[in-house]
UniProtKB/TrEMBL annotation, chain A:
It comes from Rhizomicrobium electricum. Residues 55-166 form the NADH:ubiquinone oxidoreductase-like 20kDa subunit domain. This is NADH-quinone oxidoreductase subunit B family protein. NCBIfam families: PRK06411.1 (NF005012). Pfam families: Oxidored_q6 (PF01058). PANTHER family: FORMATE HYDROGENLYASE SUBUNIT 7-RELATED (PTHR42989:SF1), HYDROGENASE-4 COMPONENT I (PTHR42989).
From TrEMBL, chain B:
It comes from the Bacteria. This is NADH-quinone oxidoreductase subunit C. It comes from Rhizomicrobium electricum. Pfam families: Complex1_49kDa. Keywords: Oxidoreductase. The keyword Oxidoreductase applies.
């Protein structure tokens, strides 16, 4: 173990420079900004990841964000274990009929202000799985979506660029929670 | 003594399918109960149920089909535990009822689909029903419900723990949350579209699914695949195995709060994915394997990138293995935790590292090899203890074997075309492929116009999820993440 630890001290970091914030994502976000509801985000964002029906490809690349090359935490992003601690819901997959209620409850359990980032082609409109008896559709069919990061799956670079766009822009306060946060649920 | 080959007759096909009578079906049930035959897959379509089998000893494989036009079929689950959830799934998606089945609760259908029996005669859904977990009785027991949304970045599923103090006395899983209806979507889809759907059955093992699907289509349509394409498929499959095993070893140790291992394994995993991207243009190599061959040739720098990767692994791997070997506090968590008994692994036909850590040596690449694995030399590692430690060690040994396979494949990579035309014809095809998690079985029926009539995709997790419930027995709740990660079953592959 000593050898590995020494190597990591003297070997220099593997972490790479951050990509520029995704221009398309920035434009998408800019449209959403309302002058009356601008609010600067703090320096840190807590992310709760929700798999609403993905094939798990997106999860693999979201995991990769934590490896030494991308080191997501250096930007103040960190993944949290409960929606109660989260600012952002990172939702993957077409929303399946069997996950719809779980996603709604997770959204309701997330305190305001909150943002929803839909990740991957399926999360946009159900992708290849649209029209199935088991699929409701994209994430926006169930909860309001603030940003969509495309890709099948999006690479860690794409994810990083999208999340940085979210961080850099002033964002509107999210719409009132729908359904209402039931608190004690 | 009647054997499986007596039933299916003389054939040179690996997976012949024969229609059988109810008597033969009942005979199959006794052979499964006596563990003379392994259950490989069990699925249905309107009016028929199918049963893929493998006989111990002779190794004969085949598919038995039973007429079920009266709407039901004799349950195998009475004597064959691994058949139970498969029967419940048949009942959910096709609407055929297993007679005298010991467990009639719905499995994949949570009452929320737009239709009931989507692959049979569609009916109006009954609406969500309360799911009855198995009763647990005893003094001072308490239950812990977990999921479907979990604390980590993982797939959704519900786990119901019944505990006595810290000790788990029963775990019951409820799955089906990520059911996307893949088989129903494939039915009627053109070949190209169907291949994309099959590739997304479980994203982490997309190359294996694409390969199994392609092999099944090629068997059905009697398509010849160029040698170079077969080699490129194997290169991708072994890269996928290495990437997943590194990810798993790191993640298992991380669940024992040893994050240094995750950091080091995560670096190698990322290097594998980058090499895959450089060589094949996609980090997970999705949609690269297609019926007829492969969609993209190795990039001009691809071979060098993979060779560079192998060098990096050779350099980093000994230190990672030593880190595991030298950390007693970590092994204190993994050794004798989550023990899976050999007889259970045999009974369920557990594939992959789960079976091989519990003394079941089955490896599709060895037992039912497809080209080019029939000409490659490699070992299937085998351990007996069946604990988390053994499942880590099997993965470590498999990484070594996969690296050796990659070297052989690169050294002998043939040149030539990478794709041949698949001329559709109305026929059936079957294939089995060893993904990183175990054996993936695919059966399909192609229409003459090149669309798919039916497709069944059986993930190895079907026979591994139930074993997790057995392995956690008597362990403390805090060791569940460790056990679960060491199994790393697919939710999406199982729920379809």
């Amino acid at each position: 173990m000593r050898k590995l630890l020494l190597k990591s001290i003297f070997g220099g970091p593997l972490t790479e420079r951050a990509p520029a914030a995704d221009k398309r994502a920035l434009a998408e976000l800019a449209e959403k900004v309302q002058a009356t509801a601008r609010r600067r985000l703090g320096r840190s964002l807590s992310i709760r990841q929700v798999d609403a029906g993905s094939c798990n490809g997106c999860e693999l690349e979201i995991h990769a964000l934590n490896n030494a090359f991308y080191d997501l935490e250096r930007f103040g992003f960190h993944f949290v274990a409960s929606p109660r601690h989260a600012d952002v819901l990172l939702v993957t997959g077409p929303v399946t009929a069997n996950m719809r209620e779980a996603l709604e409850r997770t959204y309701a359990a997330t305190p305001d202000p909150k943002w929803v980032v839909a990740v991957g082609g399926c999360a946009l409109d159900g992708g290849l799985f649209a029209g199935s008896h088991g699929v409701v559709g994209g994430v926006s069919a169930v909860v309001p979506v603030d940003l969509h990061i495309p890709g099948c799956p999006p690479s860690p670079q794409d994810l990083l660029a999208g999340l940085l766009a979210l961080m850099k822009r002033r964002l509107p306060r999210s719409r009132a929670a729908k359904p209402e946060d039931s608190g004690a649920r | 003594m009647i054997t499986l080959s007596d039933i299916i007759g003389d054939t040179d096909r690996r997976w012949p399918r024969v229609e059988v009578t109810q008597d033969v079906w009942e005979f199959a049930r006794t052979q499964l109960a006596e563990r003379k035959w392994d259950l490989i897959a069990h699925w249905g379509e309107p009016g028929a149920v199918h049963l893929a089998l493998r006989e111990h000893g002779s190794g004969t494989t085949g598919i038995l089909s039973l007429d079920a036009s009266r709407g039901s079929f004799p349950s195998l689950g009475r004597d064959c535990l691994p058949a139970r959830r498969l029967e419940r799934a048949i009942s959910d998606v096709v609407g055929l009822v297993p007679d005298e089945a010991p467990d009639t609760r719905p499995w994949l259908d949570h009452g929320r689909w737009t239709v009931r029996h989507p692959q049979g005669t569609p009916e109006q859904p009954a609406g969500p029903q309360r799911y009855e977990f198995l009763p647990v009785e005893g003094e001072s027991l308490h239950q812990i419900p977990v999921g479907p949304v979990h604390a980590g970045i993982i797939e959704p599923g519900h786990f119901r723990f019944t505990c006595s103090g810290e000790t788990v006395v029963r775990l019951e899983a409820r799955l089906g949350y990520v059911h996307k209806g893949i088989e129903a979507l494939i039915a009627g889809a053109p070949l190209e579209h169907a291949a994309k759907l099959a590739a997304r059955t479980s994203g982490d093992t997309t190359v294996a699914y694409s390969t199994a699907f392609a092999l099944a289509v090629e068997t059905a349509c009697a398509a010849e695949v160029p040698a170079r394409a077969l080699y490129l498929r194997a290169i991708m499959l072994e890269l996928e195995r290495i990437a997943n095993h590194f990810g798993d070893v790191g993640a298992i140790c991380n669940d024992a709060a040893f994050s240094l291992m995750l950091a080091n394994c995560g670096v190698v995993r990322e290097q594998v994915l980058r090499a895959a991207h450089a060589a094949f243009g996609h980090r997970l190599m999705m949609d690269r394997v297609i019926p007829g061959g492969v969609a993209t040739d190795l990039a001009p720098t691809g071979q060098r990138e993979i060779e560079k990767l192998l060098k990096k692994i050779r350099k980093a791997f000994p230190a990672i293995v030593a880190l595991y070997e030298d950390t007693a506090s970590l092994q204190d968590r993994t050794v004798r935790t989550g023990m899976l008994r050999h007889d259970l692994a045999m009974e369920f036909g557990a594939g992959g590292f789960i079976g091989r850590a519990s003394g079941r040596s089955f490896d599709t690449r060895k037992v039912l090899p497809w080209a080019p694995y029939d000409t490659l030399s490699f070992e299937t590692p085998l351990l007996q203890r069946g604990d988390v430690d053994a499942r880590i060690r099997i993965r470590i040994a498999e990484i070594e074997q996969s690296c050796a396979l990659l070297r052989q494949l690169l050294d002998t990579l043939p040149s030539g075309p990478i794709l041949s035309e698949v001329v559709p014809r109305a026929a059936e095809g079957t294939a089995m492929v060893e993904g990183f998690r175990g054996d993936i079985f695919v059966w399909l029926r192609v229409n003459g116009d090149g669309s798919l009539a039916r497709c069944h995709l059986r993930d190895p997790s079907w026979f591994q999820w139930p074993l997790l419930e057995a392995a956690i027995d008597g362990n403390i709740v805090a060791d569940f993440p460790l056990c679960n990660k060491s199994f790393n079953c697919s939710y999406s592959g199982h729920d379809l």
